[in-house]
Amino acid sequence: MLSLTGNHENAQALNFDATMSEERLPEIEKADLVISMLPARFHVQVAEDCIAAKKNLITPSYISPEMRDLNQKAIDAGIVIMNEIGVDPGIDHMSAMKIIDKIKDAGDKLNSFKSFCGGLIAEEHDDNPWRYKFTWNPRNVVLAGKGGTAMFLDNHEYKYIPYNRLFDRLDRITIPGYGKFVGYPNRDSLSYMDTYGLEGIGTLYRGTLRRPNFCKGFNVFIELGMTDDSFEMTNASQLSPRAFLNAFLPYIPNLSVEDKFKYFLREDRMYLYDQFEWLGIFDTDTNFGFEGATPAQLLEKLMVRKMSLSEEDKDMLVMYHEFEYEHHGKNKKIVSSMISIGEDPI
Question: Domain spanning 2-82: which CATH class is it, in words?
Fold first, then answer.
């Protein structure tokens, strides 16, 4: 516990089960302000306790429908519940609105707004073929896109991308000095039309940034069905990575797992093969030992083995906004980007 507080004299580390209201509420009652960094699924429970204790609450997560339903209760309790106060969502809102307001104040017409953000690995530590390490919650990365069909506006047309196509239909972005990225759409860009005051805009797109080969490689796992989190694999604890992969490949007894996988990849995606080999997907020497695991949980465990941050690694936060607008009858474009390199692996 001491390692959590370090040399901060005013910090106190407490040991209690934050998922249990009977342990959580007494600590909330002692606080002046509550900041919840728990997984997003617990924020509503914390908010209900804050309403009961009449304590203000801040979270970094998206406003869920359940959280929105607490609005009147929070007002009646005389407290503020402020969500989306992180990086994405959070800083991205503020940096976007600064430019949106500037365009509007000049009397110009905003036609397109695209916004992307991603937690990646700093270039000096970008040393694997996936060009990715876990700087975010690994489970959220593996389950990305499963919240529902992505919805956005493209040149006044409503567009919808289902999960099975999400990592295949990508925007390509180049940031000078940092190279090439791709973006896949977040679940619901349309809800930000009112939030940003962009009624009548032609294009509205919010997305997540990755390096190109990550999305192309991860799309293969989606196609195979290895990101499924809806069922437990009967023999999960006995599976090696190779057997895990083979469970999702066709039964062709005269072909090796490698050959079946190459057949599945097709010639046009064969350049991705080295990524999967590096990941250890063909290994037989170690079983997962994870009883009752879903495919997504086994995939997460496999990826965490090879993509976790080392003690020397630093992360990199990348944010990119693109605005297209009309100024005195001429089309103009503003690009805004922010790159922040971590100071340590924490």
Answer: alpha beta
